[in-house]
Design a protein that fits this description.
It comes from Linum tenue. Disulfide bonds join 21-38. Its main location: secreted. Keywords: Apoplast, Disulfide bond, Glycoprotein, Manganese, Metal-binding, Secreted, Signal. The protein has 198 residues and is α+β, with helices and mostly antiparallel strands. It is built from three helices and eight strands. It has helices spanning 164-169, 177-184, 188-196; strands at 66-71, 85-91, 96-101, 106-111, 119-124, 138-142, 148-154, 162-163. The protein has a five-stranded antiparallel β-sheet with strand order 5-4-6-3-8. A three-stranded antiparallel β-sheet has the order 1-2-7, with no helix packed on it. Strand 4 and strand 5 (119-124) form a beta hairpin. The longest helix has 9 residues, at 188-196. It starts with 65 loop residues before the first strand and ends with a helix.
């Protein structure tokens, strides 16, 4: 009589296995796991853990009336593998951060996923906090008559941003006008006019 058994074991350590993993943006390592390759700990400096400039207002003299100052792994290499970042957003009166996703007195809102596509929005006052669920299209707009500032926490060390208008109407090469006309249920000439703005 033979006795056979099998044992399968999985072990996961959700906490970091090292004190830090400062990003080495100059590394030639081809394989990168959850971020950038780590800088040799002996070469790490205090500047790898800090960012100066979040107190400086951004230039809102652009068509959107807003400016974004990111603080990601590109600005603070020590954010590497931590899965967090933040941004400062400055708004001129009626300035807007256009609908986008990756991801703030301010009008804020997001749209739920298909098929409901429900708009959830609110006007915030000084000191208010608002949460955007991960992966949903959202926007912010300053509805006041003075400049406004927000600080936004993000659940990624390098969240990226995809603005809907740029992605749809400013792609390189253009998305076919036939496709966009059908998707938005408008005439092709309207699509071409919008594409011309991007």
């Amino acid at each position: 009589m033979a006795l056979t058994f099998c044992c399968l074991t999985f072990a996961v350590d959700p906490a970091s296995l090292q004190d830090f993993c400062v990003a080495d943006s100059n590394s030639q390592v081809a394989v990168k796991l959850n971020g950038f390759a780590c800088k040799n700990p002996a070469w790490v400096q205090a500047n790898d853990f800090s960012f100066s400039g979040l107190h400086n207002p951004g230039n809102t003299g652009n068509p959107f009336g807003s400016a974004i100052t990111p603080v990601t792994v590109a600005q603070i290499p020590a954010l590497n593998t931590l899965g967090i970042s933040l941004v400062r957003i400055d708004y001129a009166p009626w300035g807007v951060v256009v609908p986008h996703y990756h991801p703030r007195s301010l009008e804020v809102g997001f749209v739920t996923s298909n098929p409901d596509n429900r708009l959830i929005s609110k006007t915030l006052q000084k000191g208010d906090v608002f949460v955007f669920p991960v992966g949903l299209v959202h926007f912010q707009r300053n509805v006041g008559h003075m400049n406004a500032v927000t600080i936004s926490g993000l659940n990624s060390q390098n969240p990226g941003v995809i603005t809907i208008g740029n992605a749809v109407f400013g792609s390189k090469p253009d998305i076919s006008t036939d496709i966009l006309a059908k998707a938005f249920q408008v005439d092709k000439n309207i699509v071409q006019q919008i594409q011309g703005k991007f």
